[in-house]
Structures are given as C-alpha cells and as structure tokens.
Amino acid sequence: MLEQVDALQQALSRLQRTAGVQVAFGGMVGERRHIRMSQLRGTRTNALHGIAVTAGAGLGGKVLALARPAAVGDYATATDITHEYDRPVLAESLRSVLAVPVVVDSVVRAVIYGAIREPLAFGDRVLLAAMRVSGELATELAVRDEVSRRLALAERAGATPGRSPGQEDLREANAELRAIAQEVDAPELRERLLTVCARLSGEVRRDPAPPVRLSPRELDVLAWVGLGCGNAEIARRLGLLPETVKSYLRGAMRKLGTHNRHETVVAARRLGLMP
C-alpha cells in the first residue's frame, strides 16, 4: 500500500508540472468504492485531506462511476455534478477542476485531480497531459501488481514442504521481472525491478562480486535460456530480433569463456549472476 501511495505522489508531481495546474490531488479507490483523498500538492489548507468521495458523487465520484475523465469550468456553479463536496473544494478556492481515472485491467484503481483557482475551461493540452500521467500511473500500478504476484509465488514455492527452495520458480520470476523492467519507462521503477532481480539471484548465491560482468540485456537473454526457451521465443518475449538475441548470447559466452548455451547458463549461475 505504501508503494502505491509513493507512485500516486510521483504522478501528482508530474501532473502539476506537465499540465501546469496550481493544485494536484487524488487518492486510491478503496474496497467500498470510495476515493480516499490522501495526497495533496499545492493546497493552502487541509480541507480536502482525508475526504472519502463515493461513486457518483461530485466530480471525482462521477469519474469513478463512469471510468472516464471529466472537467468543470467552475466547480461551484457546475450543473452536471452533485455538490456534496463544495465546502472543502471552495475552501481551497478551486474553480476549474478536472478528474481522470487510473484504470488497471478495467478497474478504476485511483482518481487524480488537477485544479486552478480561476474559472477557465481546460484546453486539450491540459487534458492530454492529465490522461498521459494517468496512463503512466496505471502502468506502474500494473507492474507493481505483477512484481508482488511473482514474489508471492516464489515465496510460497520456497515454503512448500518437501521442495528445494523453489529455484525454478525463482528463475521464472527473475526472467519475467527482467522482461517487465525493459518495458517500464520510469527509470526509478526500472532500477527497483532490477534490484529485485538481483535479490532473487542473491537467494541462490551470496559470494563476493563476481569477476565477470554481463550487461543487463545479456542477463535478460540468459534468464530465458535458463528456462529452456529458444532464440525465437526469447526474441518475442524481449521484443528483439532473433539475430540480436544470438549476439547477446555470443557476448555472454565470450565473457564467461563458454562454448554453448548450457555451459553459459551454468557458469552464470555458478558466479551468482542469475538464480
């Protein structure tokens, strides 16, 4: 949950910066379909903090119910929303307000708002910027969900009586996470995913730093080779050409002094470069 809040904070910062709004705020959607206002940027009071917006109520509730963006040029006089939240909104002197849903797998997971203190209609640039930030946050939440799911599977596999530490599950999780990391645009999240991969490798071996260094892409390729995938399948999973996969594999073999795929994977595992 704390990681979701952190992602929301970063999204609101981007919204404020790219859309040029004076105030950005929002919250995650809870079990009862409430938006709990937890993150505020640019506010002068705490009037909005902690409010639970219900589906269908106010601007955000409308967005939550319809799962699509909406905006009003003057919140106080808008006729297409209900007005349960006028007091906290007007306490911040907010006039023009937009709200955008953050949708993951057809479910609204959060709603982000941008606002200014003048009654002006938002232009397309502002709306597009808000939708772009919403899409980035949705992608980040989806990635975090997958990371959590994979780690939970690996932990359960390791805890299963009668099994070894679940190495095949760890290896599969490592390969999947490395593939996801290459699809993430946010550098900070990509680094965190690669750190998790390093932790998975560390579960197998905790020796001092190995003398050989493989590039991230060489490790990506070897992770899938270790799961028995051929070059064509690896290329599809990593969005590469088969010849490019061969090039990375040759590079890894040269660095490790090996002669075939199997030897290369074994050598990389022996050095603790991969689980």
Question: What shape does the CA trace take?
Answer: elongated
State the helical fraction. Answer: 40-55%
Number of helices: 10
Label the structural class: alpha+beta
Give a count of the beta strands, DSSP E runs of length 2 or more.
7
Order of strands in the sheet with most strands: 3-1-7-6-5
Taking all Cα atoms into account, the compactness measure Rg is 24 Å
Order of helices and strands: HEEEEHEHEEHHHHHHH
**What's the oligomerization state?**
single chain
Low-pLDDT sequence parts:
161-165, 203-207
Describe what this molecule looks like in 3D.
The protein is an alpha+beta fold and 275 residues long. Helices cover 53% and strands 13% of the residues. It is built from 10 helices and 7 strands. The strands form 2 sheets. It has a 5-stranded antiparallel beta sheet, with helices on both faces. A two-stranded antiparallel ribbon has the order 2-4. The longest helix has 36 residues. It is elongated.
